[in-house]
Amino acid sequence: FFEKEDGSSDVVSGSLLAEPVNGVEELRLAVLIGCESGCLPRERGLDPYSGVATALVKMGLPAAVALQQSMSITAGKELLRAFYKALAQGRPVDVAMGEARLALRRSREAVGPFEWATPVLTQRTANGRILDLGEGQEGAKTWLSIVSFSSRGSANPLSDEEQYERFGDLQTDLREFFDGSEIKDHRLWSESIVPILLKDLSDRTRPGRKHVLSLAAHASIAFASGYVLEAKCRKDVGVVQQDKLWWPTEGDGSQSGMWSRKLQPKIIDPKKPDLAVVVSLSRDIEGDVRKFIELGGDGTGSIGALLSAVPAGGVSQHKVRDGLHAFNLAEDLHGRISSWQTDYPGACYHFFLCAPNAYIFFHGQLARNLPRIQLYEHGMGEGGPVYRPSIRLESESS
Fold first, then answer.
1. Could you say which DSSP state residue 231 is in?
2. CB-hemisphere CA count at 13 Å for 10?
3. How many Å apart are CA 246 and CA 200, to the nearest integer?
């Protein structure tokens, strides 16, 4: 219904309303906060797609938001606040609608118990991307999250509820595969977790766009995520570390605070080709790893040398200053690791990591040139600390 000059109602069909927008490519979205604007005609003989929202989309509009029935003013304001916020953060329109519905369900204001089900989305785009906000704008950032254990006490300060409110459907939740921090079955690493990471990170990221990644996750998952989003893929990724956002190109930039000594592999058995890489940034783990290898720990039978990386000035929880410092550390160490391939081109590289997840992610981004990688997770066994093989990564050419 529209209003005539005399104040009386003017009934306009959806098809008639859609005609002026036909072929207007700049128009990407219609939001119709009107009673039953999302309903289809009920009378026989009428075009079933002549409802307002459906008619607009049929004419070429990428998406339309409408209502199935009346909605309170309070609910309408909350709907629009959450929906537009999600769109401004670069979310697909269907994800933005999901977050808006979730916001209505969680609202403590005077919102009816079922008003979250009132808004409907009609769209014609396959991936839900109706807006290109452009580089350099805050809204061009896409927020992603990977969770494999409770975020409390982890490097991510957000609670589980805050995680979902911020990331919505762009959260990859892997907690079903774990009992606490322990994997339920070691086969889940390769059969479930890696395929999920590959699909989600590939589907939810785009070249040329800025992405913010929150990792309340195991070290192996942080490394594998970086491996998927390799440095050459043109997908700009920053990582949430504690309460800061670390970008690999932003920070101090000085070369102070690098590795403590010349990085040279220590030979264990010259007849074995594999290299163990031990990174001790948050805690010194070289002794534990060396003992694990000497005792013939699971997966270590072909390790012939150990490369231990410890920061200058010793290990601490706050040794890495920022994203650029983390990336420089990873790049320096990875250069030393890559030189091992000259003498052992078919080697597997065994990573034991105790470092901030941002550093681990950046190192994973650089590791695509290694033919085979075996990651390990720290855990507790009957005799004390142990390491267990987790994710195995292999290059396409290996």
1. G
2. 9
3. 21
Note down pLDDT in tens along the chain; length 398 residues. 566 677 676 666 655 665 666 656 678 888 888 777 767 665 555 555 557 788 888 877 889 899 888 888 888 888 898 899 888 877 788 888 888 888 888 776 657 778 888 899 988 877 777 776 654 444 457 888 999 986 544 444 455 555 544 554 568 999 999 998 899 999 999 999 999 999 999 988 888 788 899 999 999 999 999 999 998 888 889 999 987 899 999 887 666 668 877 788 999 999 999 999 999 999 999 999 999 999 888 888 999 999 999 998 888 888 899 999 999 999 999 988 988 888 888 899 999 999 999 999 999 999 999 999 999 999 866 666 689 999 999 987 65
Q: Could you count the other beta carbons within 10 Å of the beta carbon of residue 318?
A: 9
How far apart CA 391 and CA 388 sit, in angstroms, is 10
Nearest Cα residue to 104 out of 142, 49, 143, 67: 67
Angle at 313 between CA 311 and CA 317, to 5 degrees: 65
Q: Which of helix, strand or coil describes residue 259?
A: strand
CA triple 235-237-241, angle to 5 deg: 170
pTM for the model: 0.67
Q: In 10 A of CB 40, how many CB atoms?
A: 16
Asked whether the beta carbons of 281 and 251 are under 8 A apart, the reply is no
What span, in angstroms and rounded, lies between the C-alpha atoms of 79 and 77?
5
Round to whole Å and give the CA distance between 297 and 277: 15
Q: Which of 240, 343, 353 is nearest to 307 (CA)?
A: 353
